Amino acid sequence: MPVIPPVSRPTAYSPRPTNHQRLARLVTDLLAPSQIAALMLGLIAWRSAETAAGAIVWGGVAVLFAAVLPFAYLLRRVRRRAVTDLHVRRREQRPRILLVGLAGVLVAFGLLLGLGAPPLLVAAVGSGAFALAVLLAITLLWKISIHVGVVTGAAIVLILMFGPFMALAAPLIPLVAWSRVAVGDHTPAQAIGGGLVGAAITLLSVNVVTALLRG
Fold it and tell me: CB 3.0–4.6 Å: which of 16, 39, 111, 186 could bond 180 by disulfide?
């Protein structure tokens, strides 16, 4: 009598990510807003401070309060499973994270202003506070891509600070937009919206800062 093999139960199957999905996740992780913000604040501090020591001190204050501490709070929320992940996929979880980020930027702004930091760095941090406030207001209604908004603003600032050759950073904008859509965190409209809002906020802030520094 033939032996009938046991019927195996179906198991849950999660398809392995494709190469382009792995690349998209890598881009999303490497060019996250906190990393971009820290890099830009460091560059602006280096460009505006009179000495290397001053750049380290002022840049350290800005990066600590505007980037490191808000990211530490986000990491804590992720570990407590209060938010989905470091990129906060669910829109309703984003306002609280953005509020903490805005608070950190405002503290950095107050400290830098009160302690006599270079005006350009103070203005950059103030512009960052304005940008976060706008993104927070939009996020209450729509899940705009903060990744794309931040990298767009950073690319514009790099071109204005270091010259046209920094247009080489411009391809990062569509790259980040593609990555956010490819990982499933945003729609194409949300990615494009992030870029447009990021560009508008940056250009407006630059004009205001330029007028204040001249006046």
Answer: 186
What angle (nearest 5°) sits at the alpha carbon of residue 26, between those of residues 188 and 89? 50
User: CB-based contacts of 170: which residues, under 8 Å, 6+ apart?
Assistant: 155, 159
pLDDT at 7: 44
Residue 175 backbone dihedrals phi, psi, to 5 degrees:
-65, -45
Q: Is 188 in contact with 195 (CB distance < 8 Å)?
A: no
DSSP 30: H
What mean pLDDT is predicted for residues 128-145?
95
pLDDT of residue 214: 74
Q: What is the pLDDT of residues 7-52, one digit of tens each?
A: 444 444 445 667 788 999 999 999 999 999 999 999 999 999 999 9
Residue that the structure tokens 């494009």 belong to: 192
Range 154-160, long-range pairs (CB < 8 A, 24+ positions)? 154/36, 154/39, 154/40, 156/199, 156/202, 156/203, 156/206, 157/40, 157/44, 157/124, 157/202, 157/206, 158/40, 158/43, 160/206
